[in-house]
Every structure is written in structure tokens, then in C-alpha cells.
Design a protein that fits this description.
The complex is a heterodimer of chains A (467) and B (211). Chain A is α/β, with parallel strands linked by helices and 467 residues long. Chain A folds into two domains: 6-275, Aconitase, domain 3; 293-465, 2-Layer Sandwich (Aconitase, domain 3). Chain A contains 15 helices and 19 strands. Chain A has helices spanning 6-13, 38-47, 77-93, 108-115, 146-155, 180-191, 206-209, 213-221, 237-243, 252-262, 313-326, 352-362, 380-389, 391-398, 447-456; strands spanning 15-18, 23-27, 30-34, 58-61, 96-97, 123-126, 140-143, 157-161, 164-171, 199-204, 230-233, 275-280, 287-289, 297-299, 341-344, 372-375, 401-402, 423-426, 441-444. In chain A, a hairpin with a 7-residue loop joins β13 and β14 (297-299). In chain A, α6 packs parallel to α8 (213-221) and α12 (352-362) packs parallel to α15 (447-456). Chain A is globular. Chain B has nine helices and eight strands. Chain B has a four-stranded antiparallel beta sheet. A four-stranded parallel beta sheet of chain B has the order 2-3-4-5. Chains A and B meet through β2, α2, α3, α5 and β8 of A and α4, α7, α8 and α9 of B.
Chain lengths: 467, 211
């Protein structure tokens, strides 16, 4: 019998009942709720006359619909109603809520790892597709819809079909100026936005082992942009060091027991994967998207594709549609494209290391005239740590706006939008049509590249910034 | 509880662009609030259906007869990728869509369809392209038939194509089963699992914050 993969080990440990050859009823260890869908699920449950099965395994925080302006000014009436409903319904069900201005509040995928709620080997779900982020700690984490959310509240279990497995091995030493964000964008460019559909992705290889945990969270965050609803990295000593002492991580004897179990999780050397991809990271340069799907990506020294050079009619039409929406000229260099907005934040890139990387570029420089640049920390704790280090001052002195934690301009559910036709460089995860606001044009990039673009007033190669 | 699905013969609209994400199917601001069900149909594909001044875009297929009433969508690769928002499925459902035929779907969108009694059919891209061509050849007048029991699609040209579907999901759609009610029948098994798992992995179940 071949060895088992990380996915198979976690999966098997959570099977309550086998429902068919490839479909199981899985136990869910952690259920995270947010303001957009949390109270709706709890009200749905109440409407069915049911109770939350395990409120102690369920945690909530507002992030999506909340304004990130100072004092939360500008949160819409409906956003305030959702916040009020989340407070009332979590209290009524005995669910812990990390509320506004409290340590613990923040983007749901930032606070899970930060608080030690997200653990290796755990099954974690949330009504949000970027739940795959938590896989960076070696968890089996995935996004669910509203119906599945109600199912988990009612049963603490979920019916799931076992996915195929894909191992993406990143090998080599990461060049200067290239980050986790560039690694995962390069993979999406290589295998496409549907390359991971139907798979759970395990990220492996020397470049993944070398990444700090926050970089691994960034990599896993974009799994869904690869089409895979689950992405994961095997836990190692870095994982344990990251989690040790966090508020909800096990302590004392329980910690030792947990670490012993977590050491058994990595894929066996003879584990078999349905698909394997190898990426040479030494060839990766800072990435930036040019179109309306994350697979529309090039190196920052590259050119915008020219549909005339593409034979396949469907691909040619797709490029034409994307260029028209983005207002870009075929064949032109992507660097130097003027920008109106820079957004540094989101569950992809709003952790302390992301803000440090952006601040390093911004320090002693000025945001170009005519560019609006926002820094939105991922959580209240990230905000406080960044302030303690003086990062807020660096940003403010450089002309960035320093905001309150939340999802903000990543998905524009809170009135925080890029105006029609304006161009944004964003550290978020989706450059979809209208994602940052109706007719807004989004270029995805790393925090360092985004900061460099804010300074240059145009899409910029951070490697040219001389630091 | 989802409505059962067995057979359907209806107008089908080809929407063949690749990677149509759930943000394009329904914009986020339509989904903010707890009272949104029933309000979403008119906003499905909003950015494609409406021009910036709010008027209908005559070039978009669902704004043209007979496609306006389409109950079947024939879609390009990776339809429904992106966000987990179930509102994408609700908005299509409120427009009257009951089945979607494509070469591949976003994983979460695919699961959300079954939760709402909508049938997503996966067939080879060549079959999808042929279906779209057959529909367009009749200017949409030719209907597409889907038989879930028999697992077949019939194109307006009369060509018949078989499709595969997970047996559990097929049964769930045919009977309109409610998964929450089904799983609650296994509550003893869930409790038994939790009791033994608590012994094996106590750190998962003991979530009180340590001082």
C-alpha cells in the first residue's frame, strides 16, 4: 500500500460516516463566521427550529461590511444592521465574537492563525472562499456556501466528496524582490485559473519550506484562484514556533500531545498524487496581472499580450475582452502603466510581514501626486503591532492612508470602491470585472510591488527601487 | 428544501466566455443584508446585462428573445469560479435557471447548485461547443432536453450525449433531499465521533482560552 498524503491523513481522521465510495460525512473542527453571512446562517437555523451543534467550536468576527475609516465612520446602514445582528445572534447561541476594536477582530482568515484557532490537522470551514488560507498551517480548510454553512451550524459536520490531490513543488532559492505572492501568481499563470479545479493542492519543495508561515498563508490564500478550494502546506518546526503561546493554541501537556500528533501529518515519502507540478522559483520575477482573471499575469518586466499573435480564437477573444475592460494597449510594457489607486491589505497580504515589506519600500519616499494609497491592516492585533513598530508613521509620512482592520477594498462590500475606469494596484486576490467597484481596473501584485507602484505613480518593478 | 429535478426541456442560452466568476454573476453589494432572497433575479449578470446608464445591453444574450426566458445555460470553461457566495446560484434561480451545462465549474459554485436543486452538468468541451453551435443555428428556438434519470442531454439537432454525475448527488436532486435533515438522523454517530475524538485530540475540543 502506498503512503498517504497530508490530505488523506487529515481527511481519514475526520470521517464520521462513509456515505459512498468517495463521499464522507466529515467532522468540522472550527467554524468561522463573519458579518456578511454569519447572522443569516444563525437566523436560518433558528427558522428551522434548530440549535448550534457546537458553539464552542464556532467563532465570529465582523470584517466584510465594516468601513475601515477611522472610527468606522461610513459603515452603511445595512452594514450596521449586519453587525448588530451578528452580535445578537452569536450572543444568543453562545458563540465567541471578536468585536470591533477588540484584540482578535479582523479579517477572518487573518485572525484564525493569529489567535491559534487554526491548527495543523484541523478541518476549518467558513462561508468565504479564501478559507483555504488556513491551509498554510497544515489544516484542511475550505470555503462553503450558505446552505453548507447552515449544515455545519446544525451538525458540526459536512458532506464532502474526496478531492483529487495535486502537489505543487516550488524548488530553488527565491530571488531578491520576489515574494510568496509572486510565487503563487506565477503558478496560476503556468497552470491556469482552473488548473486546480477538483483538487486539494499541497504546496511543497525547498522554497515552501524556506518560507515563513505568513508567506505560506499567502500562497494557500490564492489556491481558490487556481480553482482549488483547498490548499495546504505540511506543518513543520516553523509552524509549531508560529503557534506556540497563541491564545487559543494548546498549552502545557496538551501542546506536547498536539505537536506529537502534528509531526505525523506530513505526506509520506511514497505518497502518490494525482497530479504533480514543479516550479523553478529562481526563474520567477515580481508578478503583476494585466487582465480580468488571476491567470492573466506577467512578470513586471513583461509586455501586455497581443491577441493578434494568438491562434486559438477563444483565447484571442478572451484577451481582447480583458484588454478592452482594462483599457490597456496590446504589446505595450506593463511597467509604467499609470495608476490611480494602491490598496495594501486583504486576507492575502495584510499581515505584519506584508506591512513591513511595504513600509520598507515606502520609508522616506512619497506617494506620487494623483495616487490614493491605502494601507488596511488585517486585524486589530496586526494594527497594534504595526503601530508599536512605527509602521503607521512611515506610511502616513509617505502619503499613504492608514486605516482600521477589515476586508475593505478587496471586495468593495463596504462602500470602499475604486471609481469607474480608475486603475488600482492591489495586494488582494481577485482582478475580476468590477471586483473593486463597478468598472474598476485591478492589477494584483505583492505588497512591495504595490508600494513601489504608489511611489512611482505607475506599475513599477520593486527591484529598481534601489533597496 | 431544494425542489426536485428530473427532466427538463427548455430554451438554452450559450454564455461561452471562460472564467465567468461569481462576482460577475452577482455583485457583492446586492448580497449585503439578511433579506436579499427574492431580490436577486434582476441583478444576475448585472455588469453584462446593463450598460453604465442602467439600460439593458442589447448585445448580451439574456437580453435577447428567446434567450431571455432561458432555463438552461450552456457555459464556457470554469463557470462560477471565485467567491463562495451562494447568492450567485440564488440569482440564477430567481431568473428561472434550472440547469447549467459546461466543461467545468468552480468547485464551491458546483456544490452550491446541488444545494438549491439546480443541476450542473459536466460534459467534454467539444460537446459544449457543439451544443452552443446547435442552439445558435436555430437562433435559440431549438430546445435542449436534459433527463437526469437517464443521464442524457439532447441537443436541438437531435444529437444525444450521455453525462456522468455522482450517484449521491443525482439521488439528492431527483428526490429534492434536505441534507441537514439527513445528517441530523446521524446525530448519534456525530456524538460518538466527538467522544472518541476528544480522547485522541483533546486540543481540538477544548477551546477555552488559557490564561
Amino acid at each position: 500500500m502506498p503512503g498517504r498524503s497530508l490530505l488523506e491523513k487529515i481527511w481519514d481522521q475526520h470521517v464520521i460516516a462513509r456515505l459512498s465510495e468517495d463521499t464522507d460525512l466529515l467532522h468540522i473542527d472550527r467554524h468561522l463566521l463573519h458579518d456578511l453571512g454569519g447572522s443569516r446562517g444563525l437566523l436560518d437555523l433558528k427558522g428551522r427550529g434548530l440549535k448550534v451543534h457546537n458553539p464552542e467550536l464556532t467563532f465570529a468576527t465582523p470584517d466584510h461590511a465594516l468601513s475601515t475609516a477611522p472610527g468606522r465612520a461610513g459603515t452603511s446602514k445595512i452594514g450596521m444592521e449586519l453587525l448588530a445582528a451578528l452580535r445578537v445572534e452569536t450572543a444568543a447561541s453562545g458563540i465567541k465574537l471578536f468585536d470591533v476594536d477588540q484584540p482578535g477582530q479582523g479579517i477572518v482568515h487573518v485572525i484564525g492563525p493569529e489567535l491559534g484557532l487554526s491548527l495543523p490537522g484541523a478541518t476549518i470551514v467558513c462561508g468565504d472562499s479564501h478559507t483555504c488560507t488556513h491551509g498554510g498551517l497544515g489544516a484542511l480548510a475550505f470555503g462553503i456556501g450558505s446552505s453548507e454553512l447552515t449544515h455545519v451550524l446544525a451538525t458540526q459536520a459536512l458532506i464532502q466528496k474526496r478531492p483529487k490531490t495535486l502537489r505543487a513543488r516550488f524548488e530553488g532559492k527565491l530571488p531578491l524582490g520576489v515574494t510568496a505572492k509572486d510565487m503563487i501568481l506565477a503558478l496560476i499563470g503556468q497552470i491556469g485559473a482552473a488548473g486546480g479545479t477538483g483538487y486539494a493542492v499541497e504546496y511543497a519543495g525547498s522554497a515552501i519550506r524556506a518560507l515563513p508561515i505568513e508567506g505560506r498563508l499567502t500562497i494557500c490564500n490564492l489556491s481558490i484562484e487556481l480553482g482549488a478550494k483547498m490548499g495546504m502546506v505540511a506543518p513543520d518546526e516553523k509552524t509549531f514556533e508560529f503557534l506556540r503561546g497563541r491564545p487559543y493554541a494548546p498549552q502545557g501537556e496538551m501542546w506536547d500531545l498536539a505537536v506529537k500528533a502534528w509531526r505525523e501529518l506530513p505526506s509520506d515519502p511514497d505518497a502518490v498524487f494525482d497530479r504533480e507540478v514543479v516550479i523553478d522559483v529562481e526563474k520567477i520575477i515580481p508578478q503583476v496581472t494585466w487582465g480580468i482573471s488571476p491567470e492573466h499575469v506577467v512578470g513586471v518586466d513583461g509586455r501586455i499580450p497581443d491577441p493578434k499573435t494568438v491562434d486559438d480564437p477563444a483565447r484571442r477573444a478572451a484577451i481582447e475582452t480583458a484588454l478592452e475592460y482594462m483599457g490597456l494597449q496590446a504589446g505595450a510594457p506593463i511597467a509604467g502603466t499609470p495608476v490611480d489607486w494602491v490598496f495594501i491589505g486583504s486576507c492575502t497580504n495584510s499581515r505584519l510581514s506584508d506591512l513591513r515589506a511595504a513600509a520598507e519600500v515606502a520609508r522616506g519616499r512619497k506617494v506620487a501626486a494623483g495616487v490614493r494609497a491605502w494601507v488596511v491592516p488585517g486585524s486589530e492585533n496586526v494594527k497594534r503591532e504595526a503601530v508599536a513598530e512605527g509602521l503607521d508613521k512611515i506610511f502616513i509620512e509617505a502619503g499613504f492612508e492608514w486605516r482600521e482592520p477589515g476586508c475593505s477594498m478587496c471586495l468593495a462590500a463596504n462602500g470602499e470602491v475604486v471609481a469607474p475606469g480608475q486603475r488600482s494596484v492591489s495586494t488582494s486576490n481577485r482582478n475580476f470585472v468590477g471586483r473593486q467597484g463597478p468598472r474598476a481596473r485591478t492589477h494584483l501584485a505583492s505588497p512591495a510591488s504595490a508600494a513601489a507602484s504608489a511611489i512611482a505613480g505607475a506599475i513599477a518593478d520593486v527591484r529598481m527601487m534601489g533597496r | 428544501m431544494p425542489k426536485p429535478f428530473d427532466k427538463l426541456t427548455a430554451t438554452a442560452a450559450p454564455i461561452m466566455r471562460s472564467n465567468i466568476d461569481t462576482d460577475v454573476i452577482i455583485r457583492i453589494e446586492r448580497l449585503v443584508g439578511n433579506g436579499i432572497r427574492g431580490t436577486l433575479g434582476k441583478w444576475a449578470f448585472g455588469s453584462l446585462r446593463y450598460l453604465p446608464d442602467g439600460s439593458e445591453n442589447p448585445d448580451f444574450i439574456l437580453n435577447r428573445e428567446p434567450y431571455r426566458e432561458a432555463e438552461i445555460l450552456v457555459t464556457g470553461p470554469n463557470f462560477g469560479c471565485g467567491s463562495s457566495r451562494e447568492g450567485a446560484v440564488w440569482s440564477l434561480q430567481e431568473r428561472g435557471v434550472r440547469a447549467i451545462i459546461g466543461s467545468g465549474f468552480g468547485d464551491i459554485f458546483f456544490a452550491n447548485c446541488f444545494q438549491n436543486g439546480i443541476l450542473p452538468v459536466v460534459v467534454d468541451k467539444a460537446v459544449v461547443d457543439q451544443l452552443a453551435a446547435d442552439i445558435e443555428a436555430t437562433q435559440g428556438a431549438g430546445k435542449v432536453s436534459i433527463d437526469l434519470e437517464a443521464q442524457t442531454i439532447v441537443s436541438p439537432s437531435g444529437a444525444r450525449h450521455a453525462f456522468a454525475i455522482d450517484a449521491r448527488r443525482r439521488e439528492g436532486l431527483l428526490k429534492g433531499l434536505d441534507e441537514v435533515a439527513l445528517t441530523l438522523q446521524r446525530d448519534d454517530e456525530i456524538h460518538a465521533f466527538q467522544a472518541s475524538d476528544r480522547a485522541a485530540r483533546p486540543w481540538i475540543h477544548s477551546t477555552r482560552i488559557s490564561a
